[in-house]
Structure formats: structure tokens, C-alpha cells
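Support request from a user on the community tier.

User writes: "When I paste my C-alpha cells into the form, the page sometimes reloads and wipes my input. The last time it worked, I copied everything first. Here is what I submitted, just in case something in the input itself triggers the reload:"
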């Protein structure tokens, strides 16, 4: 999943580079306006795809990978004796690793 997110980010960078190269070759303002519209939809699709993958990673992280520490931290030994701050401590190393993996 992180590789897919990195690939989408790479696609965004390549799209920006392509857009800039085309812009330098097109001199008229009318053509530049068409270029903006042409690449706007592509950028929107790439951004939406990145958000979907990030949402899936976050959901998987909390509800699958950290399920036991999350549920045990919230409900064991009983609900009144636990605090959310204790549960969030187990998230820090995982989130740090995820940020290092996804963000270049």
C-alpha cells in the first residue's frame, strides 16, 4: 500500500513536469488556458486516489494491525480504569514508521 501511495505521488510529480514542459512550448495565453483545464482533471483523480489509499492504510493500521493493543488498551481491565492516552502511545512508533515510508 505504501508503494502504491509512493507511485501515485510519483505520478503527480511526473504530471507536473509534463505540464511545465508543455507550458514552456506553448506561447499563447489561449493555449495555456486549455492546458490548465486538461491537467486539472488528472490532478483531481490522482489526489482522490492518494486520499483513498491513505484512508485505507489508516483504517487497516488501526483496526487490523493495532487491533489488540487498541481494544485491550481501551477495555482491559475495565473501561473506567483506562485512558485513550495510554492507547495512543502504541500508535506513535507505527505512525512514525508509516510517515518515514510514505513521505520521501
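"...and here is what came back when it finally went through:"
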Amino acid at each position: 500500500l505504501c508503494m502504491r501511495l509512493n507511485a501515485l505521488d510519483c505520478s503527480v510529480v511526473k504530471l507536473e513536469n509534463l505540464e511545465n514542459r508543455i507550458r514552456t512550448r506553448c506561447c499563447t495565453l489561449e493555449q495555456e488556458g486549455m492546458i490548465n483545464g486538461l491537467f486539472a482533471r488528472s490532478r483531481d483523480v490522482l489526489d482522490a486516489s492518494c486520499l483513498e489509499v491513505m484512508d485505507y492504510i489508516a483504517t487497516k493500521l488501526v483496526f487490523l494491525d493495532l487491533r489488540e493493543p487498541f481494544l485491550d488498551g481501551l477495555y482491559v481491565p475495565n473501561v473506567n480504569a483506562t485512558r485513550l492516552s495510554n492507547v495512543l502511545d502504541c500508535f506513535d512508533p507505527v505512525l512514525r514508521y508509516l510517515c518515514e515510508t510514505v513521505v520521501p
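Agent notes: The reload is a front-end session timeout and is unrelated to the input. The first helix runs from residue 2 to 25. Helices lie at 2-25, 29-65, 67-75, 84-102. Escalated to web team.
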